[in-house]
Write a structure and sequence with these properties.
single chain; 7 helices; about 35% helix; globular
């Protein structure tokens, strides 16, 4: 993927598909039909009233947020997705499914071990010793560490200013 993001594009290319969250392409149980599911997502996406025929022509992905993922990683991934979307021409955008962030969460974990900064430590501590997570999580916090410029390898971060106009520098959380 050619990118205007610089070094962030490597992160995007390698990790976005794996760590972006679970994309649900239809109702997960029998409590709602496919058309009801599409109607709910269209409403959440503020697409207005649509006929069943119009909804039938649209493809949706419900984006669930993984509980295992840290807030820092969620912000980065969401920003990279938004920036990627902005680089597409309108005709290219039409070929993508409508992605709707509904606020629903999932405990599904990726098979690839994430970087340490991407892991929600509280969730990890809660599930690391429970089956089947104890098997899947055994390499977490042991294998990857953090890439340059992220998590522990980002000693100082610029935070929004407190009003003095120059921003504040703070130590990164460990």
């Amino acid at each position: 993927m050619t990118s205007k993001f610089g070094r962030s594009s490597r992160f995007l290319e390698r990790h976005l598909r794996v760590f972006s969250g679970v994309l649900v392409s239809g109702p997960e149980d029998a409590s709602e039909s496919l058309i009801e599911w599409k109607r709910r997502l269209a409403a959440e996406a503020r697409m207005g009233e649509m006929s069943d025929e119009a909804l039938h022509c649209l493809k949706f992905f419900e984006v669930t947020t993984p509980n295992w993922r840290s807030a820092e990683a969620s912000v980065i991934i969401r920003e990279l997705c938004d920036r990627f979307w902005e680089t597409l021409e309108p005709k290219q955008q039409q070929s993508y499914a409508v992605r709707v962030h509904t606020g629903r969460t999932s405990n599904r974990v990726p098979l690839q071990t994430p970087y340490d900064f991407m892991i929600n430590r509280e969730w990890y501590e809660k599930f690391k010793d429970t089956h089947p997570y104890s098997i899947i999580l055994r390499d977490w916090y042991k294998q990857n560490g953090d890439p340059e410029g992220f998590g522990a390898n980002c000693p100082q971060m610029r935070m929004p200013s407190d009003g003095d106009g120059d921003g504040d520098t703070v130590e990164a959380a460990q």
